[in-house]
Amino acid sequence: MYQKTITYHQENNESLTIRELLKKWLIPKKWQHFFRIQEDVLINGKYHSFNTIVHDNDLITLNFNFPPRTEQHYLPGNNPIEVVYEDQDIIVVNKAAGRKTHPNIMTENDSLMNDVETYLTNGHPYMVHRIDMETSGLVLIAKTPHLVPIFNRQLSSKTLHREYLAVVDLDQPIPDSGEINLPIDQDPNDVRKRMIAETGLQAVTKYEVIKQDTTHALLKLNLLTGRTHQLRVHLAYNGWPIVNDPLYNPHQKNGKLLLFAHQLTFQQPFSNNSKIIKAKLSKDMYNLICAIF
User: Fold this and answer.
1) Which residues of 115-150 are buried (b: 16+ CB within 10 A; e: fewer)?
2) Which residues of 258-286 are buried (b: 16+ CB within 10 A; e: fewer)?
3) Looking at residue 48, which CATH number applies to its domain?
4) Coil, strand or helix: which one is 31?
5) Could you list the active site residues?
6) Of 64, 84, 99, which residue sits at a domain end?
């Protein structure tokens, strides 16, 4: 059973019932139902009705005494991981380029999730989001499956968002900043690829030019949606393919894909605190950027 004990801190003189607080914490309605009928929400050690007002500095205990939506485990991996942040509930890892986020089938053991399985000697990792195999950077992983739906709701509400850095070839001029709103669908001619198509799912990317010369630009990118290969497809379609992209850049390749998930922002579960995690560029990517600019 997963148990979480929180000291509630009132914000802006809010007056919330237990029910309202659980909703604010993005706990699914089905789980709120379990908490109520099983009396598994305690205020200062005692159960109260869901209409009870929660007071500043009340001690709230949540007993997740019910099965999660998923309980997927992974085979142990063999590679060390770079931990950027860790607490009792989550771990943020800096994934290397060329490493899969998760195995395609459960008999594989050569992905980031396999390596985190080995690292968490007394627990298991639960995937919150993924990044492409060729992309390097930050990946947020939960240590309990009960947090995954909460983070999924943060992804939907944009309180969990990812910021990337990319170096692109300038096959076309680029404005200083902008928003790309183009739908993305499967490429019917190549199962590995995606393409811009009216039949696709909505995809929105914001970008800002940090520096540029006549042939390249360093961009800051924000995902407002999370489609497969979204940044790579959006940028290539506009004539700004990411350097060393093996699928969408026609230029000669000379190293790893220059796309790095350098910042994660999310709401710490069961709190009003926003958390920002940043990672340093790998030495290889830093050197390549310096060589270009």
Assistant:
1) bbbbbeeeebbbbbbbbbebbbbbbbbbbbbbbbbb
2) bbbbbbbbbbebbeeeebebebebbeebe
3) 3.10.290.10
4) helix
5) 132
6) 64
Q: Other C-beta atoms within 10 Å of 227: how many?
A: 19
* Within a domain: 41: yes
Mode of pairing for the β-strands spanning 136-142 and 259-267 = parallel
Model-level pTM?
A: 0.91
> Dihedral through CA 28, CA 29, CA 35, CA 36, nearest 10?
160
Task: Find out whether 183 and 196 touch, Cβ atoms under 8 Å.
Answer: yes
Of 253, 261, 254, 255, nearest to 279 (Cα)? 261
Structure tokens, 58: 């009340």
Please state the separation of Cα 177 from the chain's center in Å: 23
List, in order, residues 6 or more apart from 238 with CB less than 8 Å away.
172, 174, 180
Bridge partners for 178 per DSSP: 207
pLDDT digits 0-9 by tens, 189-243: 999 999 999 999 999 999 999 999 999 999 999 998 889 999 999 999 999 999 9
Element (H, E) at 152: helix 148-157
Residues belonging to the chain: 293
